[in-house]
Amino acid sequence: MSDSESEAVCDAEDFSNGSLFELSQSQSQSQGLDSSVDQDSGPFQNKEVEDLEPGVKTERLIVDKPLLMKLFQVCSEPSCGALIDPEEVKISEVGAAVTIHATCLNNHNTNWSSSDAVGEGHKKTFTINILLACYTLFCGLNISQVTEYFGHLGISCIGRSFFFNLQSNLLHNIVWMTFCYSQV
């Protein structure tokens, strides 16, 4: 270990849990935040989002897959209630979106999707994937860090190729149009 690495380790070890807490509290207070109040960043608390489309303003949740699959154990068709064989539940993941197709023992089919989609056929794109790409770009985030973060959490996410294709084919044009419109 080099001298600079050992100094960095020693500096990091000098912070106890209490001093780290005090440091974070002092930073919160210096930024004018009341540390006794939890600053929940719930969805759409900003007034600027009132003009957004309903599909964009929709609240979204992260759900554990095993808990989601419990919803597909019994048929949801009115007056059926038959069991669904786990082998008759087909899961398809496209980016951050999940589609489930299930068939009960009475041959009722259920199709469910975690996100609305735009387009049809092979041009069908899930709204959640478009929003992930847009907000990644508009917030100045690095797509590699976003996918790594989601990967560590075990959350499905868009891929780099989807992001760069959408960015070059659509998002750059939108940013340019918005810039030109704001210049008028």
Describe this structure in words.
Helix 5 (about 125-140) packs across helix 7. The protein is elongated. It has helices spanning about 5-15, 15-30, 55, 65-70, 125-140, 145-155, 160-184; strands spanning about 85-95, 95-105, 110-115, 115-120, 125. The chain has 7 helices and 5 strands; from the N terminus they run H-H-H-H-E-E-E-E-E-H-H-H. The chain is of the alpha+beta class and about 180 residues long. The chain starts with a helix and ends with a helix. The protein has a 3-stranded antiparallel β-sheet with strand order 1-2-3. A two-stranded antiparallel ribbon has the order 4-5.
Name some characteristics of this structure.
7 helices; alpha+beta; three-stranded antiparallel β-sheet; two-stranded antiparallel sheet; disordered N terminus; 184 residues; single chain; 5 strands
Q: Give a count of the beta strands, DSSP E runs of length 2 or more.
A: 5
Strand order of the largest sheet: 1-2-3
Q: What is the molecular shape?
A: elongated
Task: Output the helix-strand order.
Answer: HHHHEEEEEHHH
Helix content: 40-55%
Beta-strand percent range:
15-25%
The end-to-end span amounts to 59 Å
Number of helices: 7
Give the low-pLDDT segments: 1-21, 23-37
